[in-house]
Input
Amino acid sequence: MLRRLGISKGDVVAVALPNCPEYPIVFFGALALGAKVTTINISYTAEEIARQLADSGAHVLVGEPFLTPTLDAALNLYRKPTHFVTNGPSFTHTAINLWQVFEDPSIPFVDPVILTGEEPAVLPYSSGTTGPPKGVLTSHNGFSSHVPTTMHPYFTLEEGEDQDVYMCILPFFHIYGMGPIMTCGLHVGAKLLVSAKFDPKAFVRDISEHKVTVLHLVPTLLNFLLNSPAATPKALRRLRNVLCGAAPVPETAVAALKDRIGPSLLFQIGFGMTEVAVASKVPVNDERMGTIGQLLPNVTAKVVDTDTGALLPPLANGEICIKTPSMMAGYHNNPSATAETIDEEGWLHTGDVGHYDLDGFFKIVDRTKELIKVKGLQVSPSELENTILQHPDVADVGVVGVPHDRMGEAPRAYIVPKKSIKEQDIHRFLEPRLAPHKRLAGGVVFVSELPKSATGKLLRRELKKLT
Output
């Protein structure tokens, strides 16, 4: 289909689909042609989609029928000749129906083009939590290099099982869903249980009924699992491997899930970002909770002083910098942003503050731009969040710094309570647990939910708008 539309090596195919069986067909079909794939967050507005189409230079847009009004509006704003393909019958007469293409026996499978591997392959856009979304340009070699090292461990399948079952609840447009789940799942021959969106009524039921063995989560989904009455040991009995990332994972939550399922559960925390794919993971035989594990093969890292850039020794906190074969080539059409992220020696500056221990296990304590300066002292929002989450009546929390006359900045907590609690209860709870400069001098605000990205990452920038 893409070849008949004139798509060839170097062209850009934009995909605006929820998780669905057709997603990998379009995705890998485009890569086989040597085209670049830019994946679009389907929650974007028409203006946001149009900006990504324009920045990437898209030639084809593949979208879901229910998104047609938004995608039509985006194409009108884009104002460049673009083929529009919908995953089923469309609301417009001009769109091509992907189902009809699949059912047409006269349309042959594509013959893959010969590539060196250095050609651009995927062009996802960063979340924008530290600025406007930027196209992350990754080569074929870069995208494929992390697949073998991020596969789940090889388990001995139980009697009657012939393959592992992955639940695909995290969006394929994001690097977490695109790489470790969709691509690695297909690579190892797993069965992929695809969910178009999170359904709280179906989530645990699907895990149980479809005998899911490998479950990729973000902390918000882990929290839901722990608080769902349906998530009984019987319902989760087939789970052998749970992997969690995209945001800090409380150790108490890991312990609670292991208590529910059993000690044989392998719980792994990993670290990655759109710009480097997956860089580290907790190894199979050494589950050190509270860390992001050890570096994957062929990945190197260093920790540098956030002010001077000087190399730091083990256990000293600084910015984590990474080199990896899966690293992006740069930000598309944005050399200045690329230069700010990748230095002259080829190190990618993650913006994450952390350290490594003598065994090579890394731990992230915060983001360089999210540290709160209280009377000149650095306070880690994630440290406060992990402490507050230990309160039995707190379901979720986000901490940001707010202006303060005496302190410069003061921490403020936005708390999602499990039941009615008072601000004084939180202050009393923290008093014996935190140093004075870390306490919530900025106050406590109770909210019904926290602003988060599609992958569960807390959007502190949105929280700050509430201050």
Summary: The mean pLDDT is 88.
